[in-house]
């Protein structure tokens, strides 16, 4: 088994007064602070200037590029090329020449300085509303290990994204996934963990046995997954820091799969097959005590907790075709929430609690979609030969999923899409991958 190093400690973040002299000018093109309202409609990306960061040239250049990639990757921002810049800054403390940035129609300006000492780097940055002629929020400073420079960049991008959109951040997070190699009928699979943008991949399992459907714990320290070590699907728990796994279910002639933690980490909900019938079960993560949530002759699987931990959404064919149902943890009759044409599966409750993402098969096409938790407002976001397995970003604005290409040589690839249905993008991975699970924001 390939071992991963211990994860990085939390970055230190402080507010700081690092802005130097600000020149307050009257607003030209807006009455209030620059703010992006994310709607379903098509909007022009905000023009942003991100000139070279000051300080250590190599580290500053790398961090600046990740910040720019994070922001432009949302589809909400457009970086103005450096060749178009007419303003120059001698140091991080220099006053902002707003008028010169306005001449190239920059709406926002990011400045930063990166300095290093020993094994640490210090990164400070400021964000400016160019047309209002004022800073947007306080300056901030991050102190991190030099090896964590990418996390420092994601932290800066998260701050900028949140200040300009009002949305919670998501760049400084990780995704668990399954790498797939080999032909379709003999796939070799192993679990990996990567930054949300596909960087810093750590392998969590080797390729000695089939593994499926990793799911992060709420604190990001553990991963539940389905393993075929015993020849039958059983659930294991993997400690991310030590890269050690242990059995959660033991088999005994049954198959256990599709596990997920409750939001407080106390419970594990999963599918258990006994004598040809599959129901939803609930396990106490500390004691292993378990009980069935459903008791039906239908096939019931893919459970997902609501953010308050009081309900579970799952897939069941009790109506004749796979549909989505919601029920409380005390059991009882579940409520069906999907009524559109086609077959529904892979439900995933959003972090905000207001939406449920799902996979939908309609005819010979597959879709990733979202609906409100009561089943109203269904909207499909994608359309392809095979899309499946949605997982939510920590802020509930972006969904990652698996797209499989058709044909005998078809391969699974990870993609992401905004919940508005815009900005669908393939992940920058040079190998086939599936089963993404988006973890929480890193501490």
UniProtKB/TrEMBL annotation:
It is found in: Periplasm. The keyword Transferase does not apply. Residues 293-305 have a biased composition (Polar residues). Residues 1-29 form the signal peptide. Residues 34-135 form the TolB N-terminal domain. Keywords: Cell cycle, Cell division, Periplasm, Signal. It comes from the Bacteria. Residues 291-310 are annotated as: Disordered. Gene3D superfamilies: TolB, C-terminal domain (2.120.10.30), TolB, N-terminal domain (3.40.50.10070). Part of the Tol-Pal system, which plays a role in outer membrane invagination during cell division and is important for maintaining outer membrane integrity. Belongs to the TolB family. The Tol-Pal system is composed of five core proteins: the inner membrane proteins TolA, TolQ and TolR, the periplasmic protein TolB and the outer membrane protein Pal. They form a network linking the inner and outer membranes and the peptidoglycan layer. This is Tol-Pal system protein TolB. It comes from Paracoccus saliphilus.
């Amino acid at each position: 088994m390939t071992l991963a190093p211990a994860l990085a400690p939390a970055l230190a973040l402080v507010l700081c007064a690092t802005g130097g002299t600000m020149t307050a000018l009257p607003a030209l093109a807006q009455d209030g602070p620059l703010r992006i309202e994310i709607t379903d409609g098509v909007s022009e990306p905000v023009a942003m200037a991100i000139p070279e960061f000051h300080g250590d040239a190599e580290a500053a250049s790398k961090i600046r590029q990740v910040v720019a990639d994070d922001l432009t990757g949302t589809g909400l921002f457009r970086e103005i090329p450096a060749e178009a810049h007419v303003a120059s800054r001698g140091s991080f403390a220099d006053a902002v020449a707003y008028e010169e940035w306005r001449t190239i129609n920059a709406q926002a300006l990011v400045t930063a300085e990166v300095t290093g000492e020993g094994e640490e780097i210090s990164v400070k940055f400021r964000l400016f509303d160019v047309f209002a002629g004022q800073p947007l929020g306080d300056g901030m400073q991050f102190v991190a290990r030099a090896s964590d420079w990418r996390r420092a960049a994601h932290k800066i991008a998260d701050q900028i994204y949140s200040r300009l959109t009002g949305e919670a951040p998501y760049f400084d997070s990780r995704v668990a996934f399954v790498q797939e190699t080999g032909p379709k009928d003999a796939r070799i699979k192993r679990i990996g963990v990567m930054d949300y943008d596909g960087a810093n991949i750590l392998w969590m399992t080797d390729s000695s046995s089939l593994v499926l459907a990793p799911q992060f714990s709420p604190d990001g320290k553990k991963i539940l997954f389905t393993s075929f070590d015993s020849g039958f699907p059983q659930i294991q728990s993997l400690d991310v820091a030590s890269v050690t796994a242990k059995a959660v279910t033991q088999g005994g002639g049954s198959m256990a799969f599709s596990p997920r933690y409750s939001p407080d980490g106390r419970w594990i909900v999963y599918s258990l097959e006994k004598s040809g019938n599959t129901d939803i079960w609930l396990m106490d993560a500390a004691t292993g005590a378990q009980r069935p949530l459903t008791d039906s002759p239908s096939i019931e699987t893919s459970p997902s907790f609501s953010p308050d931990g009081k309900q579970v959404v799952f897939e069941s064919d009790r109506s004749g075709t796979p549909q989505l149902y919601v029920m409380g943890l005390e059991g009882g009759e579940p409520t069906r929430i999907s009524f559109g044409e086609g077959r529904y599966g892979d439900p995933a409750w959003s972090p905000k609690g207001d939406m449920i993402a799902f996979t939908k098969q309609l005819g010979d096409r597959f879709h990733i979609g979202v609906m409100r938790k009561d089943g109203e407002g269904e909207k499909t976001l994608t359309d392809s030969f095979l899309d499946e397995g949605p997982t939510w970003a920590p802020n509930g604005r972006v969904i990652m999923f698996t797209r499989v290409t058709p044909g005998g040589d078809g391969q699974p690839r990870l993609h992401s899409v905004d919940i508005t249905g815009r900005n669908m993008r393939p992940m920058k991975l040079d190998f086939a991958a599936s089963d993404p699970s988006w973890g929480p924001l890193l501490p």
